Amino acid sequence: MVAPETSLTNQQQPQHGISTAQTTALAERRHVQAWTDPEWQRLWLTLDRMPWRTLALVPAGEGAPADFTLTLAVTLSRTGMSHVGAPILVADGTQVPLDQLTAFQADVRACYAGGERVIIALSAAALSPTTVSMAKDSDAVALCLMLGHMRNGEAKRTIKMIGASKFLGSIIVHPDGTVPSANPDPHHKK
Length: 190
Prior knowledge:
Layout: H1 38-48, E1 54-59, H2 68-84, E2 88-93, H3 98-113, E3 117-122, H4 131-137, E4 140-146, H5 152-162, E5 167-173, E6 181-183
Parallel strand pairs: 1-3, 1-4, 2-3, 4-5
Antiparallel strand pairs: 5-6
């Protein structure tokens, strides 16, 4: 079974979330709830129009804080819940070991089989042997890039390992947590 840290129904914001001024790169954001930011809302509305029940958020490579995709997943979930008025679950797949992979994937499937949408936060493919499997098992993937912290070559390797057809697009984030551009478009250049 999935450990409490990887609970699918835990809607708690990560300890170092966007709306606090803590130690992670994403935490240096202004003191507002990110899901009220128009850029996050535009990103959500773009993602909401696309067909997915499970959406994996995969870092383009190493270089971001450990909670990078989990923070993005929680922010997108809260933004989406404010829009649709229904739960959008977050699954923390950033530290799922091989011996818990099958149980984690079964938990995710049970949630979407019950009608829930699930956003899955993953670690960089180079850091976790289970990331590629979880991304391939999801309906869609968004490549998450932190400007100035990730290499283009790592992004290309990540896309190749998962398969370009799984990607809806990319989410580009400044180190301060602002979203300068959201590019989830199945026709964008990879």
